[in-house]
Amino acid sequence: MHGKTLQLGADMPDETTVAVLKVLGSLPRWRILQYLAEAEAGRTVNEVAQALNMPLSTTAAQIKILEDAELVHTELRAA
């Protein structure tokens, strides 16, 4: 059979890259990242949940995963 042959590249992704790609494989997390990228300023978890019509608990859990992957960071606001 003629055609292209496939081989693995010499530079396989490291563990960090694989972990980030797994994180980005989730539609809710991808939506959160898109929303934050388009926002003019930081947003609270409540604001993200409302804007994306997601339950607060789901939003908080997804943001925790994004934080663990160092794709987002949070700061405490003064009351």
Structure notes:
The protein has helices spanning 15-24, 27-38, 45-52, 56-68. With 79 residues, it is mainly alpha-helical. The longest helix is centred in the last third of the chain and has 13 residues, at 56-68. It is elongated and about 65 Å long. It starts with 14 loop residues before the first helix and ends in an 11-residue tail after the last helix.
Order of helices and strands: HHHH
Q: Tell me the distance between the termini.
A: 69 Å
Strand content: under 5%
Backbone structural class: mainly alpha
Mean pLDDT: 85
The biggest sheet amounts to:
none
Counting DSSP H or I runs of 4 or more residues, the number of helices is 4
Uncertain stretches: none
Count of strand segments:
0
- Percentage of helical residues? 40-55%
- The rough form would be described as elongated
Alpha carbon gyration radius: 17 Å
Annotation keywords:
79 residues, mainly alpha, 54% helix
Describe this structure in a few short sentences:
By secondary structure, this protein is an all-alpha fold. The protein is 54% helix and 0% strand.
Topology, please?
Blueprint: H1 15-24, H2 27-38, H3 45-52, H4 56-68
Helix pairs in contact: 3-4
